[in-house]
Specification:
alpha/beta, Rossmann fold, 2 domains, six-stranded mixed beta sheet, four-stranded antiparallel beta sheet, 13 strands, nucleotide-binding, ATP binding
Length: 306
């Protein structure tokens, strides 16, 4: 597998008059990597995807996708290697599900059997001969996923892909993401629904007002947020903990026996705890992605270009 980035953005700015949607953004997406893209409404996530797709061009900076400038005429050869699911999917209402997918398959140069296999993959076989106008929001989202998966693309852009999906369908979707990643597909996944996402991404970018606040794997984002780790104990009384002066120099007591501690002090605290003869159990809770995201946003400057 080549180490050449699938996507490379170098000091990219996109402005619409006085509005700066993306401000001096640089990032890379490696082959087979899943990158989470997180931020509030208006943070610049959709604009970033449009720049990668070549729908819009940067005001400053450069964007490269699969070795080409996505907004250039020379980029036609990469179109079939890119899959995209927009936040709000829209299809021809009077066509059936399979007719819609056959249409997109033909545009990308794939046969009807491939479209039928994808219909089955997203669980729409029983409804494939029904008009799309009869589909629920969740069914339309499944059809959109099938369209995005056409041809096992090298690059897949997913904008709020689990909107309208029930818990079972959401689990199945992330299984498909993991499978595509295992086969070398690079994925950018934009979502407001953070619980459960962290198990399926390699890195994340957090945007606010068009600017990158943080980028990295979950461990580096936790370090950036500098949130406390929660250590739960069983078998040790609150009074014992409070009276342990050595221990209390490193922790804050919460809910009687829960200890809040900075990551750099974690091992010192654990060494102190294992000295207690009546200690039955220790449970360590790291901040999850949602907590890290909220903390990094709260640390951001409130003034910005938008």
């Amino acid at each position: 597998m080549t180490n050449t980035p699938v996507v490379s953005m170098n000091q990219v700015t996109k402005s619409y008059g006085s509005l700066t949607a993306v401000n001096n953004l640089s990032c890379e997406l490696a082959p087979g990597e899943v990158l989470g893209l997180f931020g509030h409404n208006g943070a610049g996530k959709t604009t970033m995807m449009k720049l990668i797709l070549g729908i819009t061009s940067p005001t400053n900076g450069s964007v490269d996708v699969l070795g080409a400038k996505p907004d250039s005429k020379a980029a036609w050869h990469i179109r079939s290697q890119v899959g995209y699911l927009p936040e709000n999917v829209s299809f021809y209402e009077h066509l059936t599900g399979i007719e819609v997918l056959n249409y997109f398959a033909k545009l990308k140069g794939f046969n009807k059997q491939h479209a039928k296999d994808l219909i089955a993959q997203v669980g729409l076989t029983e409804a494939m001969n029904r008009a799309v106008k009869t589909y629920s929001k969740g069914m339309r989202q499944r059809l959109g996923l099938a369209q995005a998966f056409l041809g096992k693309p090298k690059l897949l852009l997913l904008d709020e892909p689990t909107v309208g999906l029930d818990p079972v369908a959401t689990t199945e979707f992330y299984q498909q993401v993991d499978n595509l990643k295992a086969h070398g597909t690079s994925i950018i996944l934009c979502s407001h629904v953070l619980p459960g996402v962290e198990r399926h991404i390699d890195r994340a970018i957090i945007l606010s007002k068009g600017q990158q606040l943080a980028c990295g794997n979950l461990a580096s984002l936790r370090a950036h947020a500098n949130l406390d780790i929660r250590i739960k104990t069983r078998g040790v009384s609150p009074s014992e903990l409070v009276n342990d002066s050595q221990l209390m120099t490193h922790v804050e007591l919460c809910h009687d026996t829960d200890l809040l501690v900075k990551d750099e002090n974690k091992m010192n605290v654990l060494r102190e705890l294992v000295k207690y003869r009546h200690l039955d159990d220790i449970h360590i809770e790291q901040p999850d992605l949602n907590q890290v995201y909220q903390q990094i946003l709260s640390q951001a400057p409130q003034k910005g270009s938008i």
